[in-house]
Amino acid sequence: MGTLFDEAAAGGARTVVHLDRPFDIAPRAGTRWAVTELADLVRATAARLADAGVRPGDRVAIVKDNHWDYDLLACAAVRLGAVPALLSARLDTAHLVTLLERLRPAALITTAAVLARCRDTAAGAPARIVVTVDSAAPGAAHLAALDASRPCVPVRRHDDEPLVIHHTSGTTGVPKLVVHSTRTLVHKLARFEAVRYPGIGIRPDDVLANASAYGHGRTFCWTAVVMSLAPAGIVILTGDDPRTADPLLRAHPPTVVEALPASYIRLRPLTTRLDNPFRRVRLYISTYDAVHPPALRAYLTASRRARPLWMQGWGQTETGPLTFRFHTRRSALAPDAETTARRLGRPVPGRTRLRAVDPDTLSPVPRGRPGLLLVRTLALALGYVGEQERWDAKRVGDWWSTGDMGVHHRDGSVSILDRAADTLPGMSCLRTEDVLEQRLPQALECVILGAPDGDPLPVVVTADGRLDPDAWKQATHGLPALRDPAVLTWDEVPRTGTGKVRRAALARQLTGTAPAGTGRWT
Fold first, then answer.
1. Is 221 exposed, middle or buried (0-12, 13-18, 19+ CB in 10 A)?
2. In angstroms, what CA-CA distances link 491 with 262, 445, 463?
3. pLDDT tens per residue, range 337-386
4. Where is the AMP-dependent synthetase/ligase domain (predicted)?
5. Cα angle at 47 between 127 and 38, to 5 degrees?
6. CA distance 191 to 185
7. What are phi and psi of 255, to 5 degrees?
C-alpha cells in the first residue's frame, strides 16, 4: 500500500479524481487529481512524516475531518514502515481518548480542534510526535511546514505483520481497534475484489462515486482495488448534503456508486429530479448495514439503465465481506421485499463458512432457526489492540462470533435479526424498523429500542421532527406492541462515524437508561 499510487502511475492509469472539496493535506491544490499527482502527494507526505520523526514500526494515529486523504496519509505512513491507525473525528472525545490510550501511538496526525479536545480530556500527551494538518498549534508540527523534499525509500514489512488499524463502528459502546495485515486485507480481501467479474467488476470506462466514512476499514480496501483497476474517473463525496453533492455528481455522472447507508438516505431526494445524477448508474454497492427497501427502489428506479443492480454486502471490520446479495428493480418491488430486506445473501463460495449456534450453549441450531452467527474466514484480522481477552472471548474454536443474531436458512442464505446487544424476545427490531419505514414515507429512519421494563420505544426520524399521529397508528397495525414514538430530526440522533445510530447512547438520551440486551458477544 505504500507504493500503491506509484505502481498505478507506472502502469499508465489515467484515472481522474474529482473531489467535493480540496484535500485537508493539500488545501491549495484544487479538486482535480491525476494518478501521477496523487503518487507525488503520497511521497511528499511520507517525507514530511519522516521529517517529523516517524520511523518504521511506529504506530501513527490519524484523526481528522472526513476525506479520502485519510487513506493517502495511511499509505504515506505504510511507505515509511509505520502502522497507521485511522480514527474517526466523530468519535466522542472520551472514546477517542480511550482508543489513543490503548494505541499508545508514536505519532498523532490530527487537526488543531481535535488536538484541543484530546488535551482537555486526556491525562497526558496523546503522542510523542504531534502533527496538525490544518493549522499550526502549540506543541505540534504543522504538516505543510515539514520538509517534503527528502526521498524516502519504501520500507516493506512482512505480509503477516500489522499493516493498518481501524476501529469498529461503536454502536454499542467504545469501538474496538482491529489490526489487519497485508495478507488479510490486501491478499484475502482486496485481491478477491480486484477482479473484473462480469456485470459487477469495475470497467475501464466506469466513473465511481464514493460517499463514505474514510477513516473506516472499507475505504482502505476500496482504495487498493480502484487504484489497481484504474477506472476512468472517481468522484469523492465527503458529506451527504444533497445541495453540495448534486453539482459534482451531475458534472461527472457515475456508473458505479458506493455509499454509506446513511448517505444513501440523505442523498435520496436527488433521485426524484428529472435530470437526476444517478441516471447512468449500473451498479450500486452498500456495506456496513442493510439499506431499507424504499431507498433501494428509489435508486434503482432513478437509473435509466435497462437492468441496474444493487449489491449489498454484509461483513465486519474484523472479517471483511462475508455474504453478498443482489437486488434488481423486480426484487425491490416484490410483495415480500420488506420481510426479506434483512436476507443478506449467501457466504462467499470457497472463502467463508457460516453457522448458527445457541448463544448460551454454543450448540448448533437447525437451519431456519434463530441463533448467534459464527463465521470462518482466512481474512480474519489479527486481533484487538489493548483488548486481547475480548478478542479471545469471541473465538469459538476455529469459529469467530459476529455478535449478530440471525437465521442460516436451508438454501444457505443468511438473515440478520439484530445485534446480540439489541435483541428483544419475540421480535426482530431490524425487521420491525423495515416495516415501519415502508409504511411511513415521511420517515428518514426508524429505530426500535428495548426497554428494561415495558414495551420497546420506537424512534422515528423525520426531516422536521414531526409525525402525524394517524399515520403512526396505521403504520403500527399488526406489529408487536410499541410505546408512543419519539420523533427526532436527523441531527438529534447520536451517530457513529459511518452514520449508524448509536443505540445505547440514544436510549440513554431518551430514557436515561441503557437498552435491554446483552453485550457478551460485542
1. buried
2. 12, 12, 10
3. 666 667 888 888 788 999 999 988 999 999 999 999 999 999 999 999 99
4. 26-384
5. 110
6. 9
7. -105, -20
Q: What is the DSSP letter of 516?
A: S
Sequence-distant (6+) residues with CB within 8 A of 337 are 293, 296, 297, 331
Do residues 279 and 302 touch, judged by C-beta distance below 8 A? yes
Instruction: Give the single-character DSSP code of 495.
Output: B
What span, in angstroms and rounded, lies between the C-alpha atoms of 6 and 514? 49
- Cβ neighbors of 335 (< 8 A, separation 6 or more) are none
CA triplet 4, 72, 44: central angle to 5 degrees? 90
Cell digits for 90?
466523530
Q: How far apart are CA 107 and CA 110, in angstroms?
A: 10
Global pTM reads 0.91
> How, if at all, do strands 283-286 and 309-316 pair?
parallel
pLDDT digits (tens, 9 = 90+) for 253-286: 999 999 998 899 999 999 998 889 999 999 999 9
Q: Which residues of 394-432 are buried (b: 16+ CB within 10 A; e: fewer)?
A: beeeebbbbbbbbbbeeeebbbbbbbbbbbbeebbbbbb
On the 0-12 / 13-18 / 19+ scale of CB atoms within 10 A, 388 is: exposed
* Amino acid, res. 476: T
293 neighbors 320 (Cβ within 8 angstroms): no
Question: With bands split at pLDDT 50, 70 and 90, how would you rate the model's confidence at 518?
Answer: very low
- Please, which residues bridge with residue 179 across strands? 165, 383
Residues recorded for the chain = 522
**What pLDDT band is residue 184 in, cutting at 50, 70 and 90?**
very high
Laid out side by side, the sheet with 486-488 consists of 443-449, 457-462, 486-488
- The answer for residues whose C-beta is within 8 angstroms of residue 505's C-beta and 6 or more apart is 494
**Beta-carbon-side half-sphere exposure of residue 162 (alpha carbons within 13 Å):** 21
- Per the DSSP assignment, residues forming a β-bridge with 164 are 180
pLDDT more than 90, % of the chain: 69
* Cα 87 to Cα 111: distance, rounded to the nearest angstrom: 12
Backbone angles phi, psi at 266, to 5 degrees: -70, -35
AA letter at 407: V
Instruction: Report CA-CA distances (Å) from 42 to 69, 70, 71, 75, 148.
Output: 9, 11, 10, 7, 10
Contact yes or no for 213/168 (Cβ under 8 A): no
Residue 113 in grid coordinates: 480542534
CA 135 to chain centre: 28
